Amino acid sequence: EAGVAQSPRYKIIEKRQSVAFWCNPISGHATLYWYQQILGQGPKLLIQFQNNGVVDDSQLPKDRFSAERLKGVDSTLKIQPAKLEDSAVYLCASSPLNEQFFGPGTRLTVL
Amino acid sequence: KQEVTQIPAALSVPEGENLVLNCSFTDSAIYNLQWFRQDPGKGLTSLLLIQSSQREQTSGRLNASLDKSSGRSTLYIAASQPGDSATYLCALGGSEKLVFGKGTKLTVNP
To answer: Which chain A residues are closer than 8 Å to B51 by Cβ?
Structure first.
C-alpha cells in the first residue's frame, strides 16, 4: 500500500514570497490533515478535511494560509506571504477512521 | 483544553536496556491514544494505537499502556537497539483535534 506522498521535500524562500505544498493521501482515506511542526515541538493541526469539506481550521492563520482538497483526494496548502516564523516542517496525514498515517513532510525555510 | 506532557525530553541508554517513555494528559475524555516515531528530517511513523476502551497494545518489542483515570500512558521498549534511536511522540485523539506532546528524544548507544 502506497503511503502519503508530499512534495516538495524541501523549500527555501525569502519572506513575503509565496509557497505551495502538495499532498496525495492514501487511497480511500476520507480524512486529510495538514500539520505544522516547529523545531522541538509536536505537530500542530492547521486544517482537517473530511472528503473535500473543511472540518476544523481553527488554528489556520487565514490571513496568509489557505488550503483546498480537490475532489476529495489531493490537497494543497499555500502560504502567501510567508513570514520568518513560518519556518517549520509541514506534515500531511490521512486517516480512514481513527489512526492517522503521515507523509514525509516538507521542510520550509523562510529567510 | 487537552495538554500533553512527555517526560523526559531526552533519554540516552546503552544497547540492550529495557526502557519506558512516559506521556501524561489532562483530559481523560479521549477517543484514542497513538504513539509515533519520528526520525530526523522525516515524517511520523505510527507505532501503536490504543482505543479508549483498551488498556494496552503490543507490537514486537513495543508495549503501550493506557490509564485514563490517572491520565497516563507508557511506551515500553524491550531490549533496545541503536536503530530505536528517534523521537517518540504521543498524541491524544478526542472530540477535538489530535493533540501531540513535544516528544522524547531517545538515543540508544552501541
So the answer is: 98
Tell me whether residues A44 and B100 touch, CB distance under 8 A.
yes
Reported as a single tens digit per residue, the pLDDT across B44-90 is: 999 999 998 999 999 999 999 999 999 999 999 999 999 999 999 99
Instruction: Tell me the CA end-to-end span of chain A in Å, nearest whole number.
Output: 37
Q: Which residues of B74-85 are buried (b: 16+ CB within 10 A; e: fewer)?
A: bbebeebeeebb
Distance CA A71, CA B68 (A): 39
Distance CA B63, CA A35 (A): 27
For A80, the 3-state DSSP assignment is coil
- Set of chain A residues whose Cβ sits within 8 Å of the Cβ of B37: none
Give the pLDDT score at B97.
75
CB contacts of A104 in chain B (<8 Å) are 42-43
How far apart are alpha carbons B26 and B68 in whole angstroms? 10
Task: Report pLDDT digits (tens) over A32-85.
Answer: 999 999 998 999 999 999 988 999 999 999 999 999 998 889 999 999 999 999
DSSP B73: E
Return residues 49-68 of B near A (CB < 8 Å).
49, 51
What is the reported pLDDT for A80? 96
